[in-house]
Specification:
Elements lengths: L1 H22 L3 H15 L5 E8 L3 E5 L4 H13 L3 H7 L6 E4 L12 H8 L3 E10 L2 E9 L7 H48 L3 H15 L3 H11 L4
Antiparallel strand pairs: 1-2, 1-5, 3-4, 4-5
Helix pairs in contact: 1-2, 1-6, 2-6, 3-5, 6-7, 6-8, 7-8
Length: 234
């Protein structure tokens, strides 16, 4: 009966978290709510973070709850090995991984495992969040104690990650749309400045921005920002 009550409380907490995720005002706030929820809801979890692997080697740490997460991510990036790299390089992507004891699991990651243990990582779980082009994202949960995560912990983490993946994708799409609107507005403002200062048409002003972007190898958004800040192009 106690187990049933525990899972009922977990389900209520998960439902509350799901509502909170959809109410966040920014991508950053959404990610922070995800990693904070991992510590609150998953037994044995001391720290959490979202790792994004761009291409084959570049690592980005998002919403880490403490420095241990960032150090672990950077260690994988520096060594080019670790559980997240394995998941990213698997043909279809390993959805869940659990490392019970970093003091013993040294065969798969002979460099990463002992150094992660020195950082203070005892055990770890990771859950695939999304794949987009060549990017890979995972929600990673850490414990300072070996053997801290059980099958129940893995199930709880998987349920959390399932909700997190939907919220993460939605927040990313919303952020991208807002960024696109802001970019169009900035480019329009920059075109207006150039049209007014050089007596050009809209097409001619846009062509000026485009040529400058190509010649200087600078993104069009950045060219527009320079025009808006400086009142023109030098």
């Amino acid at each position: 009966m106690e187990d049933v009550m525990d899972w009922a409380r977990f389900a209520q907490a998960l439902a509350s978290m799901a509502r909170d995720l959809l109410a966040q005002e920014s991508l950053g706030a959404t990610l922070e709510r995800i990693t904070d929820s991992a510590i609150e809801l998953v037994e044995g979890c001391d720290a959490a973070g979202i790792l994004v692997l761009h291409g084959r080697r570049q690592v980005q740490s998002l919403a880490p709850t403490e420095e241990l997460v960032v150090r672990s991510d950077k260690l994988q990036e520096r060594l080019g090995e670790g559980p997240c790299f394995d998941a990213a390089r698997t043909k279809e992507g390993e959805r869940v991984f659990r490392i019970p004891d970093f003091t013993r699991d040294t065969e798969r990651w002979p460099s990463f495992a002992p150094q992660a243990s020195e950082l203070g990582v005892g055990s770890m779980m990771g859950f695939l969040l999304y794949t987009e082009d060549e990017d890979f994202g995972a929600l990673n949960l850490y414990s300072r104690k070996p053997g801290a995560f059980t099958e129940a912990s893995e199930l709880a983490g998987w349920l959390l990650a399932s909700h997190a993946a939907v919220a993460f994708s939605s927040a990313r799409t919303h952020a991208q749309m807002e960024n696109a609107v802001a970019t169009r507005h900035m480019i329009g403002e920059a075109m207006g400045i150039i049209m007014g200062s050089h007596d050009l048409t809209e097409d001619q002003a846009f062509d000026v921005l485009r040529r400058y972007s190509q010649e200087k190898n600078v993104k069009l958004r950045e060219v527009a920002r320079l025009v808006c800040e400086q009142g023109g192009l030098s």
